[in-house]
Amino acid sequence: MKFRRSKSEEAGNQADVDTEQVSSEDEQGEQDGPVTGAAAPTVTGPRHQGPWDSAEVQVDDEDPTNVDLGGLIVTGRPGLELRLQVDEASQQVAAVLLVGKEGAVELRPFAAPRNTDIWDDIRRQIAAETTRRGGTATEAEGVYGKELKVMMPVTTPDGKNATQPSRVLGISGPRWLLRATLLGRPAVEAQEDGDVEAALRDVVVVRGNAPMAPGDPLPLNMPANAQPMRQPEG
Prior knowledge:
The structure is a single chain. The chain has three helices and 14 strands. With 234 residues, the chain is mainly beta. It has one domain.
């Protein structure tokens, strides 16, 4: 898996980010199994196949395909590139993108109350912001419950007007909410065995025990083995 810091590829709410590239020390090998390499845990409900909470699985720290980003652990898969959206002002990682040939998923983990689902409020906020920016957001029922199908007007590199579709999911876990935005093919045609969908199911959320206000983003870090690369001149 390759590492890259990049501008946002989502058409929804995004902070400004830089475009500095980041490379890993070595290429990751093939990965066909779950992030833990262990037997699947017993989890009921929409998350019975993942994403997982860190208390539900045993992550192999020696497995080079597991990328520890602090609040998230992701698994390297052939053909996927890991990009980190970095806030230009704070230089903090704001979101994680897993990008393949057919599409991508953007990941943003948040703290949540133990017994309250904050996805309803966040979903309404996303829909309102989408409408304000000239797009449409339609609620639909998905694998993880209610989701948003978003259509946003965009300008293509050649200056033409177009519409970009995305699907925004809210996946609830123990004291956390994972906001996953699907782009490209996964936004319009869900495939259970798709590379992006499989990568999403492999994600492990690390909530930690520190007190956090509901809706606060979980801290995300640069991978320990990533080194910044200068942009080509000219």
